[in-house]
Amino acid sequence: QSADSVVTLLDYGAGNVRSVRNAIRSLGYNIKDVQKPEDILNADRLIFPGVGAFAAAMDVLNQNGMAEALCTYIENDRPFLGICLGLQLLFESSEEKGLVKGLGLIPGVVGRFDSSNGVRVPHIGWNALQITKDSGILEDVGGQHVYFVHSYRAIPSNANQEWISSTCNYGDNFIASVQRGNVHAVQFHPEKSGDVGLSVLARFLQSKSYTAKKATKGKASKLAKRVIACLDVRANDNGDLVVTKGDQYDVREHTKENEVRNLGKPVELARQYYKDGADEVSFLNITGFRDFPLGDLPMLEVLRYTSENVFVPLTVGGGIRDFTDGNGRHYSSLEVASEYFRSGADKVSIGSDAVYAAEAYIRTGVKTGNSSLEQISRVYGNQAVVVSIDPRRVYVRNPGDVEFKTVRVANPGPAGEEYAWYQCTVNGGREGRPIGAYELAKAVEELGAGEILLNCIDCDGQGKGFDIDLIELVSNAVTIPVIASSGAGVVEHFSEVFRKTNASAALAAGIFHRKEVPIHSVKEHLLKESIEVRV
Ligand code: 1PR
């Protein structure tokens, strides 16, 4: 190995840095892991992908002597790239858990985004950067969308001005990247920002042989609306994992054999959607409530292979819950989720188990801290936890007929009912529960969900458009991002949902699998309608 092909990685073990590893390897570099502080001091180039919480990260770095080594390395102007928390830790302190001291290399306090500024927190998704100086690694990135996922940010001030190389706008102007000499750090995730992100990493890695060109400034943007491709995955009757797709959650062909509809192979389709411009890919293991995920090796394999060359966020759902196996061994939902994260997932999505947790919370008013939702978001952060809701529309004559929040529906029910509530279900729509989508959304936000994936059983696979009544109801109930799902049939359905509701993203499955509507046509249409998207 030539020294030029090796990059040192500081992974202090607090979370998943698999995607960063995959991105570095895809660019032809080998990774040397930091084991002790001297490895930092001896590095030729160091990448620090901070993950987890600020305070926990500082504790680890202080305890094992890495904090001091990092400060020395950076003060000596050695090639450094911090990512996300790896940027925040360079500042004096963070308000993440009280006021916690950081490495203190850059003046300023890292604070939380303020949802009273009309933005949803966490900040999840694609924003364009405004370049403020030539930093050498961002030359073609000005005005391009890159992927962010965070609730805390540093803001520009006179004291830190000289460090700032780009900013971004989300409720307020925040620091998207910093640079001084050979020291760089970015708040966004280059490893999850498609080709644009890979080009940033490549320029950092080649810095010795690279002559920087003048950067394009670019205009800062609002948050782009995301277009997500969803792969419902399950084992077919031969035991192979296939991508399937239901009509109102029925995934079997209406033939004599009644086989599971097979629309392709998960890894291949995910790669295709990445190339086609999907902003995210979601895998839902739709029989996860039956199978034990840790024994469900094919799904872990799917994630491992996919994350090797799909550089946008990956979500996996299905079967995330506590479990006792046939041998009496108990696994916590946290262990199940950790296995998914280690295999390449950026977010996990919880369905049935979140319904039970919300019901208990509403009944008792007590947050036990023990639900899968609470445990996973405590350890991995709420931006890593999506709650997937599978509601079914129930028409009523009067809002007072039920204890759940109703909406006046655009199209009256079969007996002329003008109102409906949306009943949550578990086990893939098989069992209705005594809780509405509105009540569930509010409860899971309080319990630590970072995002809501809002399906609708009535609309699933129908191609008649998203359920605007439902999406409006839920997206107005919470301050976390809501992904509209179920029912997309034509490009106009995407502009409709973004115009009429506060959804942050729209997800579709059938139209992409059947190649009826390519992802780029959706994006072109949205652009034509003046809705910001990543191209
Ligand atoms: O309860 O935590 O084990 O999670 C199970 C997960 O599997 C949930 O996220 C649940 O939504 C999903 N699921 C379970 N059964 C089905 C099924 O279809 N029989 N799929 C299912 C849900 C719905 C959407 C679909 C959109 C878009 N799939 O994700 O992709 O409706 O489809 P369209 O664009 O074709 O209309 P747990």
UniProtKB/TrEMBL annotation:
Belongs to the HisA/HisF family. In the C-terminal section; belongs to the HisA/HisF family. Residues 351-352, 388-390, 460-461, 486-487, 509-510 are annotated as: PRFAR binding. It catalyses: 5-[(5-phospho-1-deoxy-D-ribulos-1-ylimino)methylamino]-1-(5-phospho-beta-D-ribosyl)imidazole-4-carboxamide + L-glutamine = D-erythro-1-(imidazol-4-yl)glycerol 3-phosphate + 5-amino-1-(5-phospho-beta-D-ribosyl)imidazole-4-carboxamide + L-glutamate + H(+); L-glutamine + H2O = L-glutamate + NH4(+). This is Imidazole glycerol phosphate synthase hisHF. InterPro entries: Aldolase_TIM, Class_I_gatase-like, GATASE, His_biosynth, HisF, IGPS_HisA/HisF, IGPS_HisHF, Imidazole-glycPsynth_HisH. L-glutamine binds at C84. GO terms for biological process: L-histidine biosynthetic process. The active site is at C84 (for gatase activity), H189 (for gatase activity), E191 (for gatase activity), D232, D390. It comes from the Eukaryota. Residues 9-201 form the Glutamine amidotransferase domain. HAMAP family: HisH (MF_00278). IGPS catalyzes the conversion of PRFAR and glutamine to IGP, AICAR and glutamate. The glutaminase domain produces the ammonia necessary for the cyclase domain to produce IGP and AICAR from PRFAR. The ammonia is channeled to the active site of the cyclase domain.
